[in-house]
User: Fold these one by one.
Assistant:
Number 1:
Amino acid sequence: MPVDTPPRSTATPPAIPADDVVVAFRTQNSNIRGRLVRLGATLDQIVVPHAMPDLPGRALSEALALAALCGSALPQGGNLNLLTRSDGPVSILVADYTASGRLRGYARYDAEKIAEIARSGTRHDTAAALGNGHLAITLDSGPGQERYQGVLAFESAPLSATTAAYFQQRENLPTFIRTAVAEHYVAPRQAPQSDTRWHRRAGGLMVQSVGASLEGGVEQDDDWKRVEMLAATVEDLELLDPGLTVERLLLRLFHEEAVAIERVIPLSSFCRCSREKVENVLLAFGANELSDMLDDNGKIVVTCEFCTARYVFSLDELRAAGS
């Protein structure tokens, strides 16, 4: 899936938001396409409600940044799903990107293993958190288009590296990806309405050579090699620093390549769940199955894995809805 190529525009580009944005760019001297993502408040909105420990929180944050980088190449109405299944303490990661610019995600993890890691005092990276498994990327370009899924195995590899390998092996596209995740301290005077002073942040850079070729796994294009080397100089702090604008960062990295910004996509959180949808699912069960779902208070409680919204139903309510 190459980075999209929108038509050139002579209009003055709008100001680029400091956060919660994907910026598509092109290096004019080498014609390499790329994406840069910054996630701030949107990341908090997705991750914080799950009240998960640090390690799965970092893994989910990285997955969301990658979904934004990869999915933002899709046309309006498209959707990208990034899914990992593995044997590590974080066994499942799900990150959804819906064009244009909406994100959601969740993680499943072994709470006891995560607690053991926390007690050890050793800071594990997300590669160790995932262990060995498979990455699946599902692409839906919109109505009337064929759905496509590609799967790639990984062994204790960084998720960004596995995603780059996916494009190189499955799509034959030379790809460089780097992501960074951290917590950022915000002084009370900067965020007076906030309940916490620590906020999650994620950033990422992705560049792809659309016209280059891979022969025997080796890139043959000199322009691509040069831009890849420049991209590899980016540091985590540069990807995460809210005080460093996207324009300045791209200029710092690729000033000799003459960067042209082609598209700016604001990012936000979303969820598809609703009380009506949950009710319709429950109505598909029989009376005995519904009775088995009752909690100690005689209610059926369904929690959305994505947004953690809770929906509470009584048997009488469901009987009335199904009659």
Number 2:
Amino acid sequence: MTKKALRIVYMGTPEFAVAPLEEIIKSGYEVVGVVTTPDKPAGRGQKIAESSVKKYALSHDLPLFQPVKMKDPEFVSQLQKLNPDVIVIVAFRLLPKEVWSLPKLGTFNLHASLLPQYRGASPINFAIINGDKVSGVTTFFIDDKIDTGEILLQAKTEINDSDDAGILHDKLKILGKHLVVKTLDGLAEGILKPQKQILKEDVEYKYAPKIFKNDCQIRWEEPLEKIHNLIRGLSPYPTAFTHLLINGESKILKIYKGHYKIEKHILEIGTVIIEGKKILKIAASDGFYFLNEVQLEGKKRMRISDFINGLTIKHNLKVN
């Protein structure tokens, strides 16, 4: 089967899913339909927001579908009429068997980890939170469980010490768009050999569950390396935070960037120290964490020098 003969339905929602769709079209494949989530209110003004994939599909005159329920008989009928050879999924919802079993060549997903590591919703975040040095992307066939299907292809990348979730996201987005096209090439040519995911007894497998607000709160009694990895792993979204006490008033302080120094001290954990106009550090159990970029509740994201300059009180500060 040639590229032009392959009929593709693409399913995705966020900005991460736009790059593979764009690469598929650039590579000469025919996308006969794009499926994304329905529009929904977002932000403080609750304005109706369209997904990044929808915006791209509309700008390129691609047939667009936004089903509320994937099992909707009318939607399933529409998919059947498209007669797809393959469905490609990138950052989308779970599919019922009526949908993923429909294409002749199968339905495959792009996952932002080296499966079977980091099955779940937040693989990019948890790779950094756990201090990993390597990450990657995987294409795999969908089955009736979550992230357990047969692996088609994988690609690796290093995680640098300075990388946060945003930087790793962008690395994997580039890797992923090429891997999706390479997977389509292999399916069209009939040369791929899917491999079952086998869990080895001597390997520690980590998971990547959905992240909730409570998971983002920094616990200053923990080791600095763990705190630093949490901050990196949640930056720029959903962002690690602490409560800054200013004259007894507690305000949420989001921390986007920082660094740390292991050092013995006798200060109470959570004590905030300001040195000059450019240094704000927080006492942890095994040293100090230096804040570089922050956002105080009700304010914009800013460099620490600007944050210090805007403080009217620069002593008796504490975080918890």
Number 3:
Amino acid sequence: MATQNEGLPGYDVIIVGAGPAGLSAALILGRCRRRVLVCDSGQYRNAAAQAMHGFLSRDGIAPSELRRIGREQLAPYGVELREVAVTGVRAGARRFEVSLGGGERLVCRKLLLATGLVDRLPELAGLREMYGKSVHHCPYCDGWEARDQPIGVYGQGSTGVQLALTMKTWSDDVILFTDGPAPLSEAEEARLSRHGVVVRRERIARLEGEDGWLSRVVLADGSAVERRSLFLKARQEQRADLAAKLRCAVSEERGVETAEQHEETTTSGVFVAGDASRDVLLAIMAAAEGADAAFGINCALQEEDLA
């Protein structure tokens, strides 16, 4: 069923990205007897995380271990995996040409982008050493571990307010650090006060702790506030520009936009799964989207094969 074009090696599907979304899609497509290549750049959004939570049957597993198990389970189905980045893509007549790091070119009938997002962290001294241990961006992933402890929230404006109120689910002791002046509305101020969230507007000098575990937030005036964890709303960007190169609709708010069914983008034959489409950003949702995309891809291939 694989295509050939201009002598280039051909696949039914090339999957760009080997996190939960890409591996889940590869499993379904491999079981559909499709010739599948998964390209793994080795870059993962949750690389700093100690454990992955909320994934049924795998709660608390290290992300690297989930990927290892996923790869292992692809073996019986002939799915090909390569440790390589995809550097370019080009749409042709009913096929796509994919360029790999090192210069090799391949073609495929359908393309799945599971490239995810990159979190752009604020420049706070000490933050990167603690990120993934006691500094987090997802309360659903790490809120339980911070339960009933002093929690800090880093954020400005409405996003900071919303995150601070969200963290009340896990602790009664929540402080919002705005790291400078924060023009909050009267309604926002009143809501925070009503729910017992203290707002600290001083500039932050640094985060202090040991072995990646936060103990205090040090402010610019030299004072310190004891906290055991810090949650923040990081700015997010697409990890790869492949969707834009293929003229898929991409927006800052919605990510790579998909059709109503089975994760197909606005460019025919190109599908997206995982965080790149900016739906609910949980690993189990990424895996589900990968399975959904695989279903849509195989249905499209079947229609072509049986035409």
